[in-house]
């Protein structure tokens, strides 16, 4: 389990609230406008001229817990202690499925398999006829906001008005794993309907700033979803996901000459690519343009951001999602949640392999995707 560093002095509010009182929740609709909403704001540091802190990765594994990691975990645990979660995910039984792939399964009889659909229906709404954005959410569910700051170092401003552009960090009452939150980008107080380079760069910078190898960010893109709004999810996994430890086959570039490497994940039932770079901006720009192209072609795909932002996995899926066969991003990574004890006990590696292979691209389509990714990377990095 991830731990929280108790931060005194400058940020005393990071201390956990031990109270167990149920918080009263009054939902408020923010109709394309978050003006007046107050929460903690985490301002990301902006590199000064000649400083490549944004370009490269400013942290190392040996450093102590980062400020953003401490903020996220302390706020999540504080909200959990107030009864804002529907269950304690830390008590769920977890096992590794016997076989070669070491798929991970979780038994959670309180889990709502339709929580994403409910989130989109109840929280994210589109108002006709002008297609303006609307969030209908409890103010208590907002943990804090992340935005680009003007100072060189990152800082937290407690209980202040949210900036015009940023990422709202919202608690997920149906967590798949510890620290499960929604990351909701907004621009000029509206929810975006497409993924651009600036937004994706901010998302990847959050992964870098958290600087915790247990922290993963997920993105699900499916033409079967109820909402056109863009949002991400994040949570902590104590161990590497099965897809993260598999061997890879180089497809494009290397870290020395191009600064970015594209590899194919080997020996996996779901065809997948992984993008690796020490240059945060280059990595974010390439993946964002690829995702934008896939979005414009109504393609179904998922993303997994891991290794503190240094690796991004792309999981393309066939259009069987229209028949309800879509896999979530963590399922693509090899982590499955089961709602019933019987399903949890009976699951086998063969069953999971068949399920993943059924939505994987065929060889020709995957080859076309690899060529698209190489062309975009070549255009943006050379």
TrEMBL record:
<dbReference type="InterPro" id="IPR058865">
    <property type="entry name" value="GDPGP1_C"/>
</dbReference>
<dbReference type="Pfam" id="PF26217">
    <property type="entry name" value="GDPGP1_N"/>
</dbReference>
<keyword id="KW-0344">Guanine-nucleotide releasing factor</keyword>
<dbReference type="GO" id="GO:0005737">
    <property type="term" value="C:cytoplasm"/>
</dbReference>
<dbReference type="GO" id="GO:0080048">
    <property type="term" value="F:GDP-D-glucose phosphorylase activity"/>
</dbReference>
<feature type="domain" description="GDPGP1-like C-terminal">
    <location>
        <begin position="242"/>
        <end position="379"/>
    </location>
</feature>
<dbReference type="Pfam" id="PF26216">
    <property type="entry name" value="GDPGP1_C"/>
</dbReference>
<protein>
    <submittedName>
        <fullName>GDP-L-galactose phosphorylase 1-like isoform X2</fullName>
    </submittedName>
</protein>
<keyword id="KW-0547">Nucleotide-binding</keyword>
<dbReference type="InterPro" id="IPR026506">
    <property type="entry name" value="GDPGP"/>
</dbReference>
<dbReference type="GO" id="GO:0000166">
    <property type="term" value="F:nucleotide binding"/>
</dbReference>
<dbReference type="GO" id="GO:0005085">
    <property type="term" value="F:guanyl-nucleotide exchange factor activity"/>
</dbReference>
<comment type="similarity">
    <text>Belongs to the GDPGP1 family.</text>
</comment>
<dbReference type="InterPro" id="IPR058866">
    <property type="entry name" value="GDPGP1_N"/>
</dbReference>
<feature type="domain" description="GDPGP1-like N-terminal">
    <location>
        <begin position="68"/>
        <end position="234"/>
    </location>
</feature>
<keyword id="KW-0808">Transferase</keyword>
<keyword id="KW-0378">Hydrolase</keyword>
<keyword id="KW-0963">Cytoplasm</keyword>
<dbReference type="GO" id="GO:0016787">
    <property type="term" value="F:hydrolase activity"/>
</dbReference>
<keyword id="KW-0548">Nucleotidyltransferase</keyword>
<dbReference type="GO" id="GO:0006006">
    <property type="term" value="P:glucose metabolic process"/>
</dbReference>
């Amino acid at each position: 389990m991830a731990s929280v560093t108790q931060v005194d002095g400058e940020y005393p509010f990071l201390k956990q609230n031990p109270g167990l009182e149920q918080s009263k929740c009054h939902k408020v609709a923010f109709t394309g406008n978050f003006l007046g909403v107050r929460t903690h704001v985490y301002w990301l540091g902006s590199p000064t001229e000649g400083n490549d802190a944004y370009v490269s990765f400013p942290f190392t594994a040996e450093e102590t817990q980062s400020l953003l990691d401490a903020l996220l975990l302390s706020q999540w645990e504080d909200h959990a202690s107030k009864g804002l979660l529907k269950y304690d995910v830390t008590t769920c039984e977890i096992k590794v499925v016997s076989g070669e792939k070491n798929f991970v399964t979780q038994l959670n009889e309180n889990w709502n398999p339709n929580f994403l659909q409910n989130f989109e229906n109840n929280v994210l709404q589109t108002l006709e006829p002008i297609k303006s954005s609307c969030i209908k959410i409890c103010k208590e569910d907002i943990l804090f906001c992340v935005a680009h700051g003007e100072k060189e170092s990152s800082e937290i401003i407690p209980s202040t008005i949210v900036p015009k552009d940023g990422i709202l960090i919202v608690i997920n009452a149906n967590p798949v794993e510890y620290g499960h939150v929604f990351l909701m980008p907004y621009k000029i107080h509206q929810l975006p309907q497409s993924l651009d380079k600036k937004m994706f760069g901010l998302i990847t910078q959050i992964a870098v700033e958290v600087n915790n190898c247990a922290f993963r960010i997920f993105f699900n893109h499916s033409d079967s979803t109820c909402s056109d709004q863009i949002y991400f999810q994040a949570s902590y996994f104590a161990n590497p996901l099965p897809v993260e430890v598999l061997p890879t086959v180089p497809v494009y570039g290397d870290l020395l000459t191009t600064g970015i490497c594209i590899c194919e994940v080997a020996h996996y039932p779901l065809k997948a690519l992984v993008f690796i770079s020490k240059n945060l901006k280059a990595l974010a720009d390439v993946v964002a343009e690829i995702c934008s192209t896939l979005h414009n072609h109504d393609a179904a795909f998922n993303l997994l951001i891991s290794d503190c932002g240094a690796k991004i996995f792309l999981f393309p899926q066939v259009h069987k999602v229209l028949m309800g066969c879509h896999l979530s991003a963590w399922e693509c990574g090899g982590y499955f949640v089961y709602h019933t004890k019987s399903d949890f006990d009976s699951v086998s590696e063969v069953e999971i392999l068949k399920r993943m292979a059924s939505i994987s691209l065929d060889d020709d389509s995957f080859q076309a995707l690899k060529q698209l990714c190489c062309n975009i990377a070549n255009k943006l990095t050379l």
